[in-house]
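Ops channel
N.P.: pipeline sanity check, posting one input/output pair.
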């Protein structure tokens, strides 16, 4: 079969995932490579091109033919009209960087560019937890908090593609500082980096975080924090209860604004959803309209690390789901 696979690439802070995705959304091949995110702007883009070419070569060797379309998901706000990445949290050199033009020039064909959380939302909509639903709010609780919105079966881009920065809605007006420069954003309470800062503040008297919250390399780890919560660790349980409280405040607003079928929660922090549910539910119950909240389900994302590549492929395959460029 001279198959029509689609290339979906997801650019993370340390790794790039690049996949050959079938027309029905199945991952047929997945390669992982270094992101080289601290290199020059052009070098980071060249690395993306190399990863795509390597996947194309491998697909050709396997008799899969040429890709039908190429989609690339990147972190940070981007302008989907111009294909410009405004700023990327992990790629310091990308400031107003014309990534789509660079990729299209190098590859000699069109490339669909999408924000990574938007891509994940499309992936869950196509093949994951949100399959069959038309109105979906996706929250990625990772190092930061990302968001994706699907309304009436269409991804919401807003004026130029920067809509759905759901991690930066204020949940505590005079709250703790957020990396974006504002105060009291959801991200400052319900992301791994936000939780780390809150715990460090709580344990300020100690010189460093207890080893039970750290990974093998001595870095703060949500997995370690989750394991500590499972053992009844009070600091860990309190951190998740706080995250759940603020997540509930944000979700209550999303429910009232969008009346979604489904709220999908993904990322490392979502692995501890059970420790957040009580405080989250309390805030949703207190703030969302009962008739809206009663019908809305809050579920874990189903695709995990392949959500971005599947969604990037969907974005490439469905230009109608995107703004004209
Ligand atoms: Zn913020």
């Amino acid at each position: 079969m001279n198959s029509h696979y689609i290339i979906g690439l997801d650019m993370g802070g340390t790794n790039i995932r690049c996949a050959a995705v079938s027309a029905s959304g199945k991952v047929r091949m997945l390669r992982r490579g270094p992101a080289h995110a601290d290199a020059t702007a052009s070098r980071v883009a060249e690395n993306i091109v190399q990863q795509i070419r390597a996947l194309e070569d491998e697909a050709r060797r396997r008799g899969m033919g040429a890709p039908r379309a190429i989609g690339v998901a990147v972190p940070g706000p981007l302008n989907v009209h111009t294909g410009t990445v405004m700023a990327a949290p992990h790629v310091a050199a990308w400031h107003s960087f014309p990534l789509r033009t660079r990729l299209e020039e190098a590859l000699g064909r069109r490339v669909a560019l999408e924000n990574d959380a938007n891509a994940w939302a499309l992936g869950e909509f196509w093949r994951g937890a949100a399959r069959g639903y038309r109105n979906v709010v996706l929250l990625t609780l990772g190092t930061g908090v990302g968001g994706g919105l699907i309304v009436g079966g269409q991804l919401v881009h807003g004026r130029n593609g920067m809509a759905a920065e759901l991690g930066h809605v204020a949940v505590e007006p005079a709250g703790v500082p957020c990396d974006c420069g504002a105060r009291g954003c959801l991200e400052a309470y319900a992301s791994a980096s936000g939780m780390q800062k809150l715990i460090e503040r709580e344990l300020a008297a100690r010189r460093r975080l207890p080893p039970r919250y750290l990974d093998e390399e001595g870095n703060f780890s949500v997995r370690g924090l989750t394991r500590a919560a499972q053992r009844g660790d009070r600091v860990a349980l309190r951190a998740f209860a706080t995250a759940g409280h603020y997540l509930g405040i944000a979700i209550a607003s999303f429910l009232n604004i969008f009346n979604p079928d489904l709220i999908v929660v993904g990322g490392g922090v979502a692995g501890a959803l059970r420790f957040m549910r009580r405080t989250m539910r309390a805030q949703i119950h207190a703030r969302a309209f009962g008739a809206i909240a009663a019908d809305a389900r809050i579920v874990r994302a189903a695709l995990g690390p392949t959500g971005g590549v599947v969604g990037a492929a969907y974005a490439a395959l469905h230009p109608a789901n995107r703004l004209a460029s």
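N.P.: looks fine end to end. The chain has a mean pLDDT of 93.
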